[in-house]
Amino acid sequence: MPAMSKKTADSNRVLSLANGYWASCALHAAVRLGIMPRLADSPADKEELCRELGLDDRGAAILLTALLNLKLIVLEQDSYSLPEELREFFIPGGEKDLSQVVLHMADLVSVWARLDQAVKTGSPLSRQKNAAHDKPGREHFYKAMAALAQRNAPGLAAGLGLRPGQMLLDLAGGPGIYALTFCREVPGLKARVYDLPQAGIFFKEQVAALDAPLPVEFEPGDFKKNDLGGPYDVVWLSHALHGASFEECRALVTKIAQALKPGGVLWVQDFAADPLGKGHPHNALFGLNMLVNTKGGKAYSASEILGFMEKAGFEQREYVGPAGGEKENPNLLFKGVKP
Ligand SMILES: C[S@@+](CC[C@H](N)C(=O)[O-])C[C@H]1O[C@@H](n2cnc3c(N)ncnc32)[C@H](O)[C@@H]1O
């Protein structure tokens, strides 16, 4: 068979980007309809899936064929199941469950579909049509944050230099996975998770699932309006700047400086984008996610993040690298020390 020409490969790249959402939507539907959790439990044939999940025979046949060709499911005799290596990502409530992330991404499709409007107006798309702000949408959002943090948080504490006896503020900590993981890994470290009151219920769920209690409390508050408390030895600010405008970021980082002890450390983790195109494509695309969903947020660049620290008076400001030191990890770490 002749090799594909460069022209064909180039045009294929454009075509795959044009229809890439088909695969995303197939996965979204498979999770929304309960196909993936059902198959994570045990194999089933099409008739069983239709009966148990209330699916139309033709619709199910077409979706199952798509999932099969995407290698998201396998078929043996007449029975569908999940490939062994993917099963744990769809076990509801399991340690590696990614279904809430899939559901959150599915909630965002309707606003992403109108991205061109957001680029023209610079404004987020209407909240009524944005499922992330309704009740199930909010649950998917916080549970997705928890699932993503569960993948990234383990093993980070040592590299952050966290020590027993320190008091850490997990600012905009949401369900509190980072604070809980850090305190589990560093006995003697104490932490406060600070977030909007609506996040409290998701923090409580995480605490209820612990094997043993950890010295982590939840403080409801709005970092734009309220005091942060303190003084703290360390502030961990993960994925909060990208939701705020440039001015709000400046004000927040200044507020953090005031809440830290002298010599205290601010760690920022974010999906920083590279405006010169040499960064992780995920992070640049994440900027678009902020464009369609927030009034002033974006994926700030490394120099903007370090600039917020400089303006707030932090010294020894540095870009440390991807969390965990893995090149592919889009979670980038920045550090600043209060003089
Ligand atoms: C993308 S999530 C990040 C959660 C967590 N830090 C992490 O990295 O997984 C952003 C968090 O900021 C919180 N947040 C947004 N605006 C806030 C505000 N004005 N005050 C306090 N928290 C806020 C949200 O409730 C949410 O938990």
Describe this structure in words.
It is a single chain. By secondary structure, the chain is an alpha/beta fold. It folds into 2 domains: 6-88, Winged helix-like DNA-binding domain superfamily/Winged helix DNA-binding domain (Arc Repressor Mutant, subunit A, Orthogonal Bundle); 129-337, Vaccinia Virus protein VP39 (Rossmann fold, 3-Layer(aba) Sandwich). The chain is 46% helix and 17% strand. The protein is built from 15 helices and 10 strands. It has helices at residues 6-18, 20-32, 35-41, 46-53, 57-69, 84-87, 99-112, 115-121, 135-152, 156-160, 177-185, 200-208, 246-259, 281-293, 302-311, and strands spanning 44-45, 74-76, 79-81, 167-171, 190-195, 216-220, 232-238, 260-270, 315-322, 332-337. The strands form 2 sheets. Strands 6-5-4-7-8-10-9 form a 7-stranded mixed sheet, sandwiched between helices. α7 crosses α9. It is globular and about 65 Å long. It starts with 5 loop residues before the first helix and ends with a strand. The model has no long low-confidence stretch (mean pLDDT 96). The structure holds S-adenosylmethionine. Residues 145, 149, 172-174, 195-196, 199, 222-224, 238-240, 243 line the site of S-adenosylmethionine.
Secondary structure: elements and pairs:
Layout lengths: L5 H13 L1 H13 L2 H7 L2 E2 H8 L3 H13 L4 E3 L2 E3 L2 H4 L11 H14 L2 H7 L13 H18 L3 H5 L6 E5 L5 H9 L4 E6 L4 H9 L7 E5 L11 E7 L7 H14 E11 L10 H13 L8 H10 L3 E8 L9 E6 L2
Parallel strand pairs: 4-5, 4-7, 5-6, 7-8
Antiparallel strand pairs: 1-3, 2-3, 8-10, 9-10
This protein binds S-adenosylmethionine.
The site of S-adenosylmethionine has 15 residues, from helix 9.
